Write a sequence for this structure.
């Protein structure tokens, strides 16, 4: 009886299949590595806020200090979101009737808070402390980017664990005098790394990389 | 090179004028028969039922959480790990028969090596199920693989569990390759004998264009030899690594240097027992008495006896070392093992693994199919209990008496244990029906007619 | 899980921005107050409510969940979001106030700590105080006034009460009765007086289930007037405790006493005191004692008499008790010990102390007063103080009231918290009597058994949400301030009284301030800030009167001894899951009560361990499980009160909610005439009981028992003080092992901090306060009886209990075991995903979010201190899951008890103690922010803070002069299982006993000589 024979083109399929099979794992790894990373998923997150508050205007053009609103940034874990009161300090006089500010005025009148949307949102099993960084000389800009140029705030850095570790392992890249932390334009005198290294030595800054540093 | 063994199971010609065709017929008929024997249907039905239970109970575990299992505070490892070690162990005989015996030119292996290998793979499949579902968060085991990630986290290579991942992974890969390699010529045979196009296509695909040219044969045997050489160390490595899970820990009853050889011997012991248990019905129902002869069974019985003695020696040694160590906790662990709450499990193990094989000292017993079959089953039970005794009873009573507890299996424990057999037998029965159960090509090489120059 | 349309904050810390918002409480109330609003909450209201309440759970990353930030509209002065603040307050339990510091996180109380400046408690706390947080956030607490079970308004309640009182007042108060619990609150006393003024005929009855007449009446018999006893145990060289609970939390001044007692039990600091304990059950003093004998309660008077005879004779004093016959003395050993003790007392006259259990008769107390006076202990080890005014009372008082009610003399009954329908003695028919009362008003935390029968009920304010005051044992005042507005709309007793008495000031604050008479704001503020006020009361000169001979009770065949439960007290804490699941310090029983008998009694009556039995007193009987408790006096059955509640709540058992009744109600057999110990009978009921025990859950066979014996001496090392002084190395030599070599050098140098803990076995009496403190601090879930019975308890710190000596006269040893933070940690090396790693400071960090649950770490931990979430316990206990949270309001309220500083674990992850790493981190950051070093004792871990006896000390081992550095350096410090070379960071200070030479061959330690 006649033997069963595959068509000639079938010979190619073997190579193709082989190639695909060996390529698949590599693709998978790459997909998890890059595709799954906050670099891809989170950076640029820019939710719409109830009030179109512009940091570019307040912090940038008018040059208000971050700490005018985020008062507790250097004494507590949270850089407090300012109470409505803080807005009204000026806006009772400045643009007292601007429609954009209606939610703020309502909040001040009714006592119901303005519902800001959180932009820089760490997982809940991560315990980040602003004061621990700000008082050591890590500038706001290092994690939040040039907020003073953002009409609406967006996430500038991945805020991933690897990203945190980069800085905890070599903090010198991001160190500056504590009085300069809120200065978005600050440049290190001379070679930034050399400066950072020296500053780190002088102030004995050794960020821990233990699990319990952030996870409890 | 080792001198070829003189033991040839095939004395005298097989019936029929063309023994080669005979063998081909015998084996291929199983696949070509329009209907497999009724026994096959009954067996498969039963296996599928167990498999259903397996699926259901595992689904329940994942949904409800591993609280469904019998684990308690001191006994954090229970049935799942016991089953895992048990099944990994079963696998060994396959690799031993196909690889080691091949290298040692034990020709008689040819009749049984195929489904011994199949058994290996199915056993590894069963084993592989358990670690994944026994962990607290079954959707995360991939964290044990070294995948680069944004957290900058790697698995911890100091952990024996991590070693397992690689050991078992390698083992599974090589076994599958070895198994498949061996089947290629037989697939070709099936392909050429098939009438239906579907089968021709499928077997043709599997045969990868085998034509049986001498060049192909030459390469085939090369590759086969190489894979055999590769597989041989794995026989030792896999179960040694598995034993490290316990040997490297600090728990009295686990922390024992004798474990690696002891586990390997045990694995071969249990594995051969399982081969016997599978071979006896297989040759019965698929009419392979000619190919898997009594001689085969007898030889395997001898292996079982030998390895059984090794295991027995290991049990004795454990006890001796515990006493000799003078370490209070160590001594207590073994006293407790033999006379404590779980003594019944220990003595079951001793009876099954040490005493029952002793019957094989007598030729009468070695050559009695039923005795061999029954002892095979007993030994498998014993090997399961060995793992249970080591893992669970050691955990129930460790250092601080305030932590002592007892282990009470939950229904899910039993269901998964039975279910894993369902998975194993389902796969095996399908194999019997649709794949070449005996390495025809190899057998042919060793029947008397195969040795032309003898004349 | 899909993103929810209503997005809500995920975790506590996002609350920081919205806490203090005036709307907060309103929303809580809207959710819990009137059923009308509960049925139809406004969409906006409900959503906002969730944003507030939802915050407390879902401590896991769900990136796709949008988070809202809700700042204040007006920021309170000096408020820093997310910064915990401590407020001083106090908790009064049965008339005994304990000063507290309560940690408030964004306006939410989350942790109770002892106030270290408290002159009586000296900073200690008991389980009841530690567990108050859970009780506070208990959704079963009453949240709305009821009229005949139907919801009504608080106005209606006030109106009805006012009318009833006015009507009674017209008749001079006739037919108006008040039933309250014991208290020493000056404000309540003031308003009581006011009530008497307006309605002289009105009666005020006080019923406290645990009331003991002995101490007060005893003083009257001895001196002819009342006198408050104040111990200075630290001055006592010899202490004879006769069936006494004076160091057990709950009895007045106990927390201070145990600390000063412990201060004399450290052989490395000064001379050790010697303790003799003769008692019916193994008490805390019994487990610390150098000599302990189990005797029946009826033998105590005889022993006291003998002691008095010997002392008087030696002192040449007349009027002594006659030395009783030997067979009245409860055994030869008891006699011998008391004889020796008498000698010892005389040798240390003036530096000794004799105490007797409050449950004993006034005559007995009188004699003990006499003994102490004769020994010249007055002024040194104890002082008599002018008794402060207080209200207290027991079964007799209740019986009188019930008689009134039966006689239809009571038209209006105002019940202040008392739950007489449940905890009255068996022969007092309070329920029936209550039905004869025209109108009854119940004010309490729960709609309990009594509230269900009352015509009106109003919710009471929990002490954490109310202004309060009380007078401590030494006469100084305690002031309690609210940490939050009443979240369930409750009011305190005084607020209610002030309302219907028509007083000008009706707010709790005003009332308390008026009582204390602090006009100047400065004084008031400083008093509130400190939490205490005023001078100790003057000490009294006492003159002995002749004391009539004690009528020795004839020994009965079987004594049934009633004690308050060390966990749920008289039943009032029955709905507290933490306390229900707390293992009893001896039986290790959780979720229920049992009859405890000695092995001898068990054999005598053919009882079976773990089976049910029938206990009968005066023809009334109940059945409850039986447990063999070595150390219980032969011929006695020990039962605790406070179980079998039928209207406690979902946790504690409720007929209405159809939840399991927990334990058996022993009040049903408690006679009013002999409420503390009575003659009774016991019989086996052939029915097994699955008990929720956390130690020896399964029967131990002979091999196991032998194994235990062999290792106990190594695990709990001990020596007598004599041996220890002679060879300080005696402890070290308890274990001999080959040199400890490691394959690799320790990876870390620990040159920064090196955290360590020391546990002094000489001081731990097993009071369990640390266990609850840990649970509260670290969000440890409650697993329920079923899981406990399977052996899956979760507590991070467990107190291991070992009996030493033979089972008929055993000594007990309590050993707290928590994660030992090994430097050479077996757990770290086996985790395949690196979920538990070593920190530079030597902690075994546990990263819950990395754990995949292989449980290998637990197998490899020789101390078995790791706990695994086999089920989603938070879902089961709190009704919430860290992943998805819940919309269920009750669950939201419960979840508010979580400590926001600690991740809430979910199903399938391992968890364990990390030396309260959250506390370490916060202090470290603060210190570095201000560029200063951390001072020793600045970081207090939860267990250490709660420990009344100071048995636990935490600190930096690199600070050799620090408390823990010193503790680790004494010769009796040893590592548990050191031969394994895990190099644990916890050191145990060996148990050093101080037996009397004449007895030292008879007591349990003899075997170690």
């Amino acid at each position: 009886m006649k033997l069963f024979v595959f068509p000639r083109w079938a010979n190619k399929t073997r190579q193709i299949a082989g190639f695909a099979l060996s390529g698949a794992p590599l693709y998978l790894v790459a997909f998890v590595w890059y595709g799954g990373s906050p670099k891809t998923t989170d950076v640029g997150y820019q939710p719409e806020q109830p009030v179109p508050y512009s940091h570019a205007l307040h912090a940038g053009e008018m040059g208000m200090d971050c700490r005018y609103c985020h008062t507790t940034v250097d004494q507590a874990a949270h850089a407090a979101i300012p109470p409505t009161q803080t807005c009204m300090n000026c806006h009772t006089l400045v643009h007292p009737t601007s429609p954009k500010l209606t939610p703020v005025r309502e909040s001040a009148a009714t006592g119901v808070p303005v519902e800001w949307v959180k932009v820089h949102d760490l997982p809940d099993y991560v315990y980040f402390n602003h004061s621990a960084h700000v008082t050591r000389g890590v500038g706001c800009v290092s994690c939040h980017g040039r907020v003073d140029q953002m009409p609406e705030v967006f996430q500038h850095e991945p805020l991933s664990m690897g990203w945190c570790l980069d800085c905890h392992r070599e903090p010198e890249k991001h160190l500056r005098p504590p009085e300069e932390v809120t200065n978005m334009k600050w440049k290190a005198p001379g070679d930034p790394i050399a400066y950072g290294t020296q500053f780190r030595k002088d102030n004995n800054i050794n960020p821990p990389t233990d699990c319990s540093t952030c996870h409890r | 090179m080792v001198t070829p063994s003189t033991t040839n199971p095939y004395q005298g010609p097989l019936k029929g004028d063309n023994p080669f065709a005979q063998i081909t017929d015998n084996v291929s008929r199983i696949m070509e028969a329009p209907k497999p024997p009724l026994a096959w249907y009954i067996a498969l039905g039963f296996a599928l039922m167990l498999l259903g239970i397996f699926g259901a109970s595992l689904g329940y575990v994942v949904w409800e959480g591993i609280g469904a299992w019998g684990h308690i505070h001191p006994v954090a490892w229970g049935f799942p790990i016991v089953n895992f070690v048990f099944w990994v162990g079963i696998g060994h005989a396959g690799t031993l028969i196909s690889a080691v015996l091949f290298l040692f030119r034990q020709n008689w292996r040819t009749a049984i090596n195929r489904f011994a290998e199949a058994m290996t793979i199915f056993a590894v499949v069963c084993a592989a199920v358990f670690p994944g579902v026994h962990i607290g968060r079954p959707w995360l085991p991939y964290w044990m693989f070294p995948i680069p990630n944004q957290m900058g986290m790697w698995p911890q290579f100091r952990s024996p569990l991590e070693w397992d991942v690689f050991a078992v992974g390698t083992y599974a890969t090589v076994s599958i390759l070895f198994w498949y390699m061996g089947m290629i010529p037989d697939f070709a045979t099936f392909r050429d004998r098939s009438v239906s196009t579907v089968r021709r296509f499928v077997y043709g695909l599997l045969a990868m264009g085998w034509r049986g040219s001498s060049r192909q044969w030459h390469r085939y045997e090369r590759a086969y030899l190489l894979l055999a050489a590769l597989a041989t160390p794995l026989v030792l490595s896999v179960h040694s690594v598995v034993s490290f899970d316990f040997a490297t820990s600090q728990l009295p009853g686990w922390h024992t240097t004798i474990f690696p050889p002891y586990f390997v011997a045990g694995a071969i012991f249990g594995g051969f027992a399982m081969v016997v248990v599978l071979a006896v019905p297989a040759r019965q129902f698929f009419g392979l008495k000619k190919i898997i002869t009594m001689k085969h069974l007898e030889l395997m019985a001898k292996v079982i006896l030998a390895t059984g003695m090794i295991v027995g020696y290991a049990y004795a040694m454990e006890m001796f070392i515990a006493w000799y160590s003078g370490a209070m906790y160590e001594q207590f662990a073994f006293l407790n093992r033999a006379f404590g709450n779980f003594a019944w499990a220990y003595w079951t193990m001793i009876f099954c693994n040490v005493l029952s094989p002793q019957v094989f000292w007598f030729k009468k017993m070695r050559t009695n199919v039923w005795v061999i079959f029954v002892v095979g089953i007993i030994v498998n039970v014993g090997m399961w209990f060995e793992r249970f005794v080591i893992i669970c009873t050691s955990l129930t009573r460790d250092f601080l008496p305030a932590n002592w507890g007892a282990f009470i299996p939950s229904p899910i424990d039993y269901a998964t244990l039975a279910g894993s057999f369902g998975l194993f037998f389902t796969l095996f029965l399908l194999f019997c029906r649709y794949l070449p159960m005996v390495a025809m090509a190899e057998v042919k090489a060793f029947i008397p007619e195969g040795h032309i120059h003898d004349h | 899980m899909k993103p929810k349309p209503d997005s809500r904050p995920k975790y506590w810390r996002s609350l920081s921005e919205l806490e203090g918002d005036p709307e907060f409480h309103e929303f809580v109330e809207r959710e819990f107050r009137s059923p009308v609003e509960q049925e139809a909450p406004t969409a906006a209201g409900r959503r906002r409510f969730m944003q507030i309440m939802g915050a407390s759970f879902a401590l896991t990353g769900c990136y796709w969940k949008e988070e809202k930030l809700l700042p204040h509209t007006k920021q309170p002065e000096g408020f820093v979001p997310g910064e915990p603040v401590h407020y001083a307050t106090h908790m009064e339990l049965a008339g005994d106030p304990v000063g507290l510091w309560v940690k408030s996180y964004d306006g939410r109380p989350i942790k109770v700590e002892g106030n270290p400046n408290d002159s009586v408690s000296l900073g200690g706390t008991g389980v009841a105080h530690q567990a108050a947080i859970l009780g506070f956030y208990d959704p079963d607490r009453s949240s709305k006034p009821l009229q005949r079970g139907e919801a009504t308004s608080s106005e209606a309640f006030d109106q009805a009460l006012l009318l009833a009182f006015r009507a009674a007042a017209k008749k001079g108060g006739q037919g108006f009765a008040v039933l309250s619990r014991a208290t020493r609150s000056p404000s309540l006393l003031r308003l009581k007086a006011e009530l008497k003024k307006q309605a002289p005929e009105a009666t005020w009855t006080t019923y406290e289930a645990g009331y003991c007449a002995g101490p007060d009446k005893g003083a009257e018999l001895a001196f002819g007037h009342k006198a408050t006893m104040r111990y200075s145990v630290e001055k006592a060289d010899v202490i004879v405790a006769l069936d006494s609970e004076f160091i057990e939390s709950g009895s007045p001044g106990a927390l201070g006493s145990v600390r000063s007692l412990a201060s004399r039990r450290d052989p490395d600091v000064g001379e050790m005191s010697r303790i003799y304990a003769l008692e019916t059950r193994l008490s805390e003093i019994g487990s610390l004692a150098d000599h302990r004998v189990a005797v029946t309660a009826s033998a105590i008077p005889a022993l006291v008499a003998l002691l008095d005879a010997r002392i008087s004779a030696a002192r040449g004093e007349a009027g002594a008790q006659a030395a009783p016959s030997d067979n009245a003395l409860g055994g030869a050993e008891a006699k011998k010990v008391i004889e020796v003790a008498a000698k010892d007392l005389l040798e240390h006259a003036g530096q000794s102390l004799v105490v007797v259990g409050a449950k004993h008769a006034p005559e007995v107390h009188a004699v003990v007063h006499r003994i102490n006076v004769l020994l010249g202990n007055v002024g040194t080890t104890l002082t008599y103080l002018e008794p402060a005014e207080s209200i207290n009372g027991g079964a007799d008082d209740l019986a009188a009231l019930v008689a009134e009610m039966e006689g239809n003399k009571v038209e209006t009954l105002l019940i202040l918290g008392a739950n007489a329908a449940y905890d009255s003695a068996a022969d007092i028919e309070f329920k029936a009597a209550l039905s004869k009362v025209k109108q009854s008003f119940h004010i309490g935390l729960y709609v309990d058994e009594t509230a269900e029968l009352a015509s009106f009920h109003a919710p009471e304010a929990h002490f954490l949400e109310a202004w309060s005051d009380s007078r401590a044992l030494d006469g100084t005042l305690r002031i309690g301030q609210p940490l939050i507005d009443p979240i369930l709309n409750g009011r305190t007793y005084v607020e209610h009284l002030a309302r219907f008495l028509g007083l000008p000031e009706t707010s709790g604050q005003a009332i308390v301030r008026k009582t204390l008479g602090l006009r100047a704001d400065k004084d008031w503020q400083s008093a509130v800030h400190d939490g205490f006020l005023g001078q100790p009361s003057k000490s009294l000169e006492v003159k002995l009167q002749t004391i009539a001979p004690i009528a020795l009770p004839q020994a009965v065949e079987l004594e049934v001894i009633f004690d308050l439960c060390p966990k749920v007290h008289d039943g009032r804490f029955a709905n507290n899951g933490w306390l229900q699941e707390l293992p009893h310090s001896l039986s290790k029983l959780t979720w229920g009560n049992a009859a405890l008998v000695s092995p001898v009694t068990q054999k005598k009556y053919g009882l079976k361990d773990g089976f049910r039995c029938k206990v009968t007193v005066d023809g009334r009987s109940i059945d409850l499980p039986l447990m063999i408790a070595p150390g219980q006096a032969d011929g006695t059955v020990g039962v605790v009160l406070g179980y079998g509640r039928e209207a406690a709540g979902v946790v504690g058992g409720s007929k209405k909610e159809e939840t399991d009744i927990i334990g058996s109600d022993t009040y049903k057999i408690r006679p009013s005439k002999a409420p503390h110990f009575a003659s009774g009978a016991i019989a086996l009921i052939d029915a097994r009981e699955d008990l929720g025990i956390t130690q020896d859950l399964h029967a131990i066979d002979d091999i196991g028992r032998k194994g235990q014996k062999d290792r106990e001496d190594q695990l709990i090392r001990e020596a007598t003080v004599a041996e220890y002084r002679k060879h300080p190395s005696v402890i070290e030599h308890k274990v001999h092992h080959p040199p400890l070599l490691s394959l690799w050098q320790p990876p870390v140098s620990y040159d920064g901090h090196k955290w360590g803990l020391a546990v002094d076995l000489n001081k731990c009496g097993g009071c369990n306060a640390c266990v609850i403190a840990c649970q509260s601090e670290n969000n440890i879930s409650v697993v329920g009886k079923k899981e406990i019975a399977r052996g899956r308890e979760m507590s991070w710190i467990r107190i291991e209990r070992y009996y030493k000596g033979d089972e008929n006269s055993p000594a007990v040893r309590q050993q707290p075991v928590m994660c030992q933070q090994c430097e050479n940690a077996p757990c770290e090396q086996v985790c395949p995903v690196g979920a538990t790693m070593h920190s530079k400071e030597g902690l075994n960090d546990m990263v819950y979010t990395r754990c995949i649950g292989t449980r290998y770490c637990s197998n490899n931990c020789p101390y078995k201190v790791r706990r695994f979430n086999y089920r989603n316990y938070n879902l089961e206990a709190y009704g919430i899951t860290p992943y998805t949270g819940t919309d269920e309001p009750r669950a939201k309220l419960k979840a508010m008890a979580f400590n926001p500083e600690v991740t809430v674990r979910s199903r399938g992850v391992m968890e364990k103690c990390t030396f309260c790493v959250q506390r370490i981190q916060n202090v470290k950051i603060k210190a570095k922010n201000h560029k200063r070093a951390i001072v020793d004792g600045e970081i207090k871990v939860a267990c250490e803070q709660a420990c009344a006896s100071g048995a636990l000390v935490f600190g930096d081992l690199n600070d050799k002069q620090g408390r823990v550095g010193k503790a680790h350096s004494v010769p009796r410090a040893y590592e548990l299982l050191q031969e394994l070379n895990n190099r644990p960071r916890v050191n145990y200070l060996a148990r050093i006993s101080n037996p009397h030479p004449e007895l030292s061959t008879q007591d349990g330690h003899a075997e170690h000589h």
